[in-house]
């Protein structure tokens, strides 16, 4: 896993280039004589694509902060930062370096993403039809155990035998499942703990689709009576450890969950992010005084701009 850079957030260092480059202060000399001044540097930098991108980034960041900054506190940013730090443990610094980030730039990415989250909620609010559609796909977070067998005829046969052993077992089915997982599962990451898997819901993208579909059909204490085939992994036998009670209607709590799921999906859709950024810019009504930089926001303001979609930010960290 690596941290992903939020494009609107990682230009912090480069931002200083344009902020400072406004005078004739000497910033470098050659052989103690020939000078490179701030104004020369600025003129050279602004002619480059990266220089223009820095300015557009600054404008968008400032616009986001002006419109939604009061909703994002340092406490919120630090809380998410600490979550990542805890998640990666001793590998945290290594992951930052591998992603070309520092602790400070990761925090800036997190803040930018939170600002974008509020911008998405404001400029692209969730509709009732979206809620209804999301509710159909919604599944509460569940915890399962599984046994993985090889992706061949022997694996399929063995999976069938595991199901048969469960059917014939007397007493506690979960206890029997744990024994079978330790004995037969080919997945070393879960076999020793009885096949216990990390809780997941309908938004999980790391779990095999066939596995998810089969698991969501089970009630607490049930297991798949037919082996579940995954072309990528092999044959699964799945046991539902937790409650799996999807509500019949959208409650206030479920509505909040659905809205969060929809907004998160929208933030991963570069077209929708670009559309929101366009609205943020228009509301900010930026006035660019340098004629050479008049068009730095054009990519964001053009309809369905491919350039804007490429520059739209990603999540600060990904799985």
From TrEMBL:
Keywords: Cell membrane, Isomerase, Lipoprotein, Membrane, Palmitate, Rotamase, Signal. InterPro entries: Foldase_PrsA (IPR023059), PPIase_dom_sf (IPR046357), PPIase_PpiC (IPR000297), PrsA_foldase (IPR050245), Trigger_fact/SurA_dom_sf (IPR027304). Its EC number is 5.2.1.8. It is an enzyme of class 5 (isomerase). It comes from the Bacteria. Its main location: membrane. It is found in: Cell membrane. Residues 139-242 form the PpiC domain. It is a lipid-anchor. GO terms for molecular function: peptidyl-prolyl cis-trans isomerase activity. SUPFAM superfamilies: FKBP-like, Triger factor/SurA peptide-binding domain-like. Plays a major role in protein secretion by helping the post-translocational extracellular folding of several secreted proteins. This is Foldase protein PrsA. It comes from Periweissella fabalis. The lineage of its organism: Bacteria, Bacillati, Bacillota, Bacilli, Lactobacillales. The gene is prsA.
């Amino acid at each position: 896993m690596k941290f992903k850079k939020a494009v609107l957030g990682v230009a912090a260092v480069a931002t200083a280039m344009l902020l400072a480059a406004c005078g004739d202060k000497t910033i470098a000399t050659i052989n103690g004589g020939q000078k490179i001044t701030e104004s020369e540097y600025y003129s050279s930098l602004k002619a480059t694509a990266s220089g223009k991108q820095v300015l557009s980034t600054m404008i968008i960041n400032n616009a986001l902060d002006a419109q939604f900054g009061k909703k994002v506190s340092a406490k919120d940013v630090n809380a998410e930062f600490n979550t990542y730090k805890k998640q990666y443990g001793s590998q945290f610094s290594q992951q930052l370096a591998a992603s070309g980030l520092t602790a400070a730039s990761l925090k800036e990415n997190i803040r930018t993403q939170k600002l974008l989250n509020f911008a998405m909620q404001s400029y692209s609010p969730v509709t009732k039809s979206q809620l209804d559609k999301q509710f159909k796909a919604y599944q509460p977070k569940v915890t399962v155990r599984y046994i993985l067998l090889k992706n061949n005829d022997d694996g399929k046969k063995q999976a069938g035998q595991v199901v048969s052993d469960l059917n014939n077992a007397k007493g506690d089915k979960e206890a029997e499942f744990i024994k079978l997982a330790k004995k037969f599962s080919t997945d070393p990451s879960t076999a020793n703990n009885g096949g216990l898997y990390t809780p997941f819901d309908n938004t999980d993208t790391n779990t095999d689709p066939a596995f998810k579909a089969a698991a969501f059909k089970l009630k607490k204490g049930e297991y798949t009576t037919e082996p579940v085939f995954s072309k990528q992994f092999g044959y699964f036998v799945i046991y539902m450890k937790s409650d799996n009670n999807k509500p019949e209607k959208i409650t206030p709590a479920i509505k909040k969950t659905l809205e969060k799921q929809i907004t998160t999906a929208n933030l991963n859709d570069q077209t929708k992010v670009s559309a929101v950024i366009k609205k943020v810019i228009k509301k900010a009504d930026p006035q660019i005084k340098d004629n050479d930089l008049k068009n730095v926001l054009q990519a964001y303001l053009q309809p369905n701009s491919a350039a804007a979609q490429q520059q739209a930010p990603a999540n600060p960290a990904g799985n």
